[in-house]
Design brief:
Keywords: DNA-binding, Transcription, Transcription regulation. This protein is α+β, with helices and mostly antiparallel strands and about 280 residues long. About 40% of the residues lie in helices and about 20% in strands. The strands form 2 sheets. A 6-stranded antiparallel beta sheet has the order 5-4-3-8-7-6, sandwiched between helices. It is globular.
Amino acid sequence: MAIPDNPESGPRRTRGRPRGWDDKTAQNTIKSLDRAMAVFDHVSRGSGLALSTIAAETQESPATIYRILVTLAGRGLVEFDAEAQLWHIGPHAFTIGTRFLRRTSLVDRARPVLRRLMEATGETANLGVEREGAILFVSQVETHASIRAFFPPGTLSPMHVSGIGKALLAAMPQDRLERLLAGQDFASFTEHTITDRDRLADELRRIRARGYAVDDEERNLGMRCIAAPVFDMNAEAVAGVSLSGPTSRVTPDAVVGLSGEVIAAAEALTRAIGGVARREV
């Protein structure tokens, strides 16, 4: 049965969107909560941070940071290593993250695709998406080989040194690509990292032409990655599939054959989510 409008409050608003939904001014934000979430985000990016370091880097007082951390720790979002005197992201953050992954069928539908890719190539298969100018790895099926690549779900990587990152950059509309690259610092990780914008542009043209990207020891020496984009129903690249392995197995000669497996996996996942692959003309 339809619920009539409340004569005192006017027309009924959409559930979950209160009056002033589009008003993002200060009176509609909780400053203390916003500050706490900023601290949580900062801790999550580190591999263990001291209280004084967090305070200095967030420009908050140590007393304020301590209260925030204790509150977050009470919810399991951060935890304290008493021996090292360092703060880390907590286990409940992972629980919340897995709930986010359940929102989309992409991860669920990718699992059998990634498993088949791993079994066909003998190398670790990965799924990644773009988040705020970086690649977020959201799923992985590891190879059984003793020497293998490992990018656990939640790992972030700069786009210019990631196979998936370069595959997604190559598939982006030019205007969005230029906006995203304008915010990149092209940090160098190895002697093979592409740090020049013109060189990266040339690399993206090659990726578009052949349909796959290669991270050729650009993030980690001794590791090579091959990736291809996954498209949604609007023919927009929404994710990337990759395989990663040591250069001793993923050799330059092997890349061409392995790339076919990666492209096939990306196309299979595109079909599984009802997507339409974009074809270059």
